[in-house]
Amino acid sequence: MDAIFIPQLTKAPERTEEIQVREFLPGLDTLTPVRGVIRVRHCGNYLEVLANAEAIITCTCNRCLQQFNHRLAVDTSEVIWLDETANQVEDLPLEREVPLEDLVESLLPQGYFHPSEWLYEQMCLAIPFRQLCDRNCQGIEGTAKNKSDNSAEKTVDKRWASLEALKKQLPG
Question: Strand runs (DSSP E) across 1-133, as ranges?
Answer without folding.
Answer: 4-5, 16-23, 34-42, 46-60, 67-82, 106-107, 112-113
